[in-house]
Amino acid sequence: MEFVWFIFLPALAALFIPTLFKRVTGIHTGWFVLIIPIVLFAYYSTYLPLTASGEHAISSFDWIPSLGISFVSYLDGLSLLFTLLITGIGALVVLYSIFYLDRHKEKLGNFYVYLLLFMTAMLGVVQSDNIISLYLFWELTSISSFLLIGYWYTRDGSRFGALKSMMITVGGGLMMLGGFVILGILGDTYSIRELISGLSNYSGDPLFTLAAVLLLFGAFTKSAQFPFYIWLPDAMEAPTPVSAYLHSATMVKAGLYLVARFTPIFAESSVWIWLVSGIGLLTLMWGSFFAVKQTDLKGILAFSTVSQLGLIMSLLGAGAIAYHSDDTLFRFAMFAAIFHLVNHAVFKGSLFMIAGIVDHETGTRDIRKLGGLMSVMPISFTVAFIGGLSMAGIPPFGGFLSKELFLDSMVALKHFELFNFDTWGILFPVIAWIASVFTFVYSFYFVFKTFTGEKKFDKLPLKPHEAPIGMLISPIILAISVIALFFIPNVVGKWIVAPAVMAAQPQLYSLPSEAAVHVQAWHGFEYIPMWLTVGVIAIGALLFTSIKKWQPVYGLQPEKLSLNALYDGVMTFSEKGMNKLSRFYMNGLIRTYLLYMFAFFSVMTIVVLFAKGAFKLDMSSLSPITLFAVMNAIVAILGTGMVIMSKNRISAIIALGAVGYSVALFFVLFKAPDLALTQLVIETISVALFLLAFRHLPALKTHGETKQNKLVNGIIAIGVGLSVTLVALSAHSNKLVASISQYYKDTVHTEAGGGNIVNVILVDYRGFDTLFEIAVLSIAGIAVLGMIRLRLSRKGSDDEKE
Amino acid sequence: MELLMAIVAGILFTAAIYLILSRSLIKVILGTGLLSHGAHLFILTMGGLGGSAPPVLLDGVTEFVDPLPQALILTAIVISFGVTAFILVLAYRTYAVHKTDDLNSMKGNDEHD
Of 3.30.300, 1.10.287, 3.30.360, 1.25.10, which CATH number belongs to B2-50+66-101? Predict the structure, then answer.
């Protein structure tokens, strides 16, 4: 079966959601939606044995074959891992949302449409082998994230957060597209697999590093790395199920996926390794430090997500080092990265759901107002306790194992001898350790400030009580998984993590079993990471108990120097700047626009005429000048002059009439009897019309035009006149193709049976043209009549209101 | 002859553009009138002004002037009349409603953006 279509299943289902929401009012729409991720999860699970044996499955559908663009569903260990996360956590989140969002108050139709759209986009991102369709899905995740953050669109914060995330992630996405295009040109293919296999042909190209950096912009903005992370805390305005799903478990991991997927290509680049591991570590440190500053429960989780994403990112960077050394020391990093990614998705999902429950049951997420909830919400507390301790890296929870692997990989980095790591490498374990201490502190801060301590229930907007059971199912399932991950890490490693590691480092392993690392909780007393963990717990506990004493440190950072202020500044500046710029040349005056057009027209015409050598004056083909013509020309020019110079309306109208009649005389001179007749008639009617209308028109006024204005007008007018003269002469002198008139001359009698060629052309050869001309005249006539009859001035205000 | 007519057409265009760029609505209308005259002469000149007989089949006449520009101009004359009539009435309405024919004061304001 062509399973590429399964990517589109959620989007397809989304088509029916609005109808379901409107028609089936008795049942929460979420129950229908829930079917989709469950079915997909079950279906994709069947591929586990395949990927565990190191194989992959492909299904594709050509989209634009001539450009090499297609939808390809490529399922290997890495994409299957993400696929299962998307569908699995997706199912739990939908289940949770059924109890979180009230079906009578919320616009569930919108919500689930966005959510399903996101599911399709995300599946597309992780399964696409074609980088152009990958980019398409990538931006679709940004758009659906925008819609979901702005779900409560009446709130200012939601709209601001939605726009901010959109600006940053789409901006990064565009840079990534640039990287993709460079890669596509270098490798002459848009397929990731072919790019990997043909790597040696183009890896030496100078543009290779540029492609790597551009691609990282996409990954860093999406995965909220420093300094782009600022959108993630503002994205917390979204409903909590969305935060749990998009902004911790799946979408923000798309950047990690991208880095892992492109590691086989860019691992040789030192810029790649330094950027990925360095920025990752900086983000880890920055996020964990500022998490303790936050007072909003979801704010703490947002910063902790930023920090954890940084941790995985730095591990992915370290994973690329495995390409440069045979030492097995460096092989842990990629495994640790993937393993922690799974852990993080599980524990962070449960923590977000708990934050949502606390918000739902107490009416606030402000940690300063919360406290002592343990007695009324025991189940929520247990789940939060498990998730929090896993995040802090304490046994017996899954997070402990991956945290040890992480510290192990970071310690190993100082043994790496290339790219200056032997001098700077020591920074990695040091920063990693400090960040781990803060991770410990914010985990405890989140769990214990909320659930233990002084009870302040009277200050809460709602009277707290335990959440309904339906809302607790999802976090409980996740909490059980957290514990399970600790006890069966090697099962997970064998089936899920190792195949993904192999997919991310295909050149290093031929079988998943080679990539597997035996994970164990106890390594003996000589194991450095173990002592690091002990240190983390000791110092972390000390810092947590004294948190009141040192927390004011955060007040030292002035608000004006933050990255958020920079973002706001850039946004207002560009908005005002662009407004000023367009106001500068689009000032609303017709004259200005006409000046641009006429100036452009004359300059372009004259330049092209001479640059291309098109100007030609063939004196021999000119017909002889007659006295009549000269006299008539003098009349026309004099009349024209009078129209310009005239100070009153009547003389201007009469002068215009004189010009018209002289044109009619020209037609007589140039053997055009029909034209002359028509011109005479029309000119007479025109003058009559002018004279009729002039009674109602104002006197000729200059409205205070300055000399300078007139001079500019004059110059532009002369330019246009000159180019017209030049074009007329060149057109007459350059007869490059034979005139089609000969055809009319030859056939006018035989085909059309007429004698007057001009008339026959109008009514026969170009009959439709004339028909439409009549239509145009009728429309103009109706418009004229309408404007004369219409009485806006008296009851205009009434008309406009209706 | 073509040289002369090209120059006449150029002068008509110059005058027309000069009027169209002014701030007075009436001058703009006068300008469009001149512009159509200029355009007609321009088309006629491009085709060539030689030729001994009008484009009408008669016994013994074999050399006509080019009929195609004439056909084009014939259409243009009628259309330009329609346009002139339309904007003349438009100007009349505009003046009746706004009591001004200054184009600068008709540019609208930020509220209309």
Answer: 1.10.287
